[in-house]
Amino acid sequence: MDWMQILAAGVLAMIGPVTAGYALSSIGLNLQFGYAGLLNFGYVAFMMVGAYGTAMTVDFGGPLWLGLVVGVAAAILLGLLLGIPTLRLRADYFAITSIAVAEVLRLLIRSSSAEALTGGVFGLQGFGDGFYALNPFPNTELYGFAPFVVTGRSLWVIVVGWSAVFLAILFTARLIGSPWGRVLRAIREDEDATRSLGRNVFAYKLQALMIGGAIAGLAGILFALDQQSVHPDAFQPRITFMLFVMVILGGAGTIWGPVIGAALFNFLFYGTDRLMAQLQANVDFIGAILTPAEAGLIKYFLVGIALMLLMVFRPQGLLGTRDEGRADVG
């Protein structure tokens, strides 16, 4: 087996545009879940409306900068519309409502009646030309050293994506270090006590939902620009739960935890995928009992075991504490 290829697969995934997008998404989810205690199981919907807002704006002839504004504004508006009627619900009811809203939106976007606007099940393609026109790296040029090599096109997305991640980290750190952030953490620990001190708990939760949604909208835009396409089936509920895993893995309620969790998750996920592919191809007894497709599914099993062990021995995540990892679900 080629262990260097396995390592390269994990490392390139860890620093690649997909991980940058997941890290950005995890930062927004951490603001909602890790700091405000909101169990938003429909979080992927914010990524979806951000991606579609940008894609539809450009597809109808608007400039890319306007698409970015529309995508982020759509995510903020979704937070407002979702939060006003639901944030007074108990946390578990809010979780159920949010995932229902996300699925209704996804099915609406993929429906034939919306095809003229959203492309239906086929989605929208080719709206990122303005983004790649700004690329200072030649698209086909290779950068790095074997086997850690990326194209100029990927390098451009990596630079933009990780720049957005670090800006989001700085923004979140300033927010959480402010009086607003201290109130948010107080709400997570005890809503009633915070309310008794004269704080408007509903308003703070709504603000956290909208700000976290805006960050998710940016992440959805990054994914869409990277793939030059957006379609509804890319925004299924499993994306939300993968993001929860990344936040918990790194440490909920910490500044760097979501980024570390996203990077480590993708390193394990894609590295294990390459490992199983090589085992299936090179080890006779594994190749005899597993097809390539079945070997590809083993990564979910192995990563799941690793996460179970983490929850047993360090439930607060790599950087978190037990107190920071709690969320009020009562």
Describe the structure.
This protein is mainly alpha-helical and 330 residues long. The chain has a domain at 16-235. The chain is 72% helix and 4% strand. It contains 15 helices and 4 strands. The strands form 2 sheets. Strands 1-4 form a two-stranded antiparallel ribbon. Strands 2-3 form a two-stranded antiparallel sheet. Strand 2 (142-145) and strand 3 form a beta hairpin. The longest helix is centred in the middle third of the chain and has 27 residues, at 201-227. It is globular, with a radius of gyration of 20 Å. Residues 325-330 have low confidence and may be disordered.
Report the total helices: 15
Number of strands: 4
Biggest sheet record: 2 strands, antiparallel
Order of helices and strands: HHHHHHEHEEHHHHEHHHH
Helix percentage range: over 70%
Structural class: mainly alpha
Low-confidence stretches: 325-330
Radius of gyration: 20 Å
Assembly state (oligomeric): single chain
Strand order of the largest sheet: 1-4
Shape label: globular
Spell out the blueprint of helices and strands:
Layout: H1 3-15, H2 17-35, H3 44-59, H4 64-86, H5 91-110, H6 115-118, E1 124-125, H7 129-132, E2 142-145, E3 148-151, H8 152-177, H9 179-189, H10 191-196, H11 201-227, E4 229-230, H12 237-250, H13 257-282, H14 284-289, H15 292-313
Antiparallel strand pairs: 1-4, 2-3
Helix pairs in contact: 1-13, 2-8, 2-11, 2-12, 2-13, 3-4, 3-5, 3-11, 4-11, 8-9, 8-11, 9-11, 12-13, 13-15
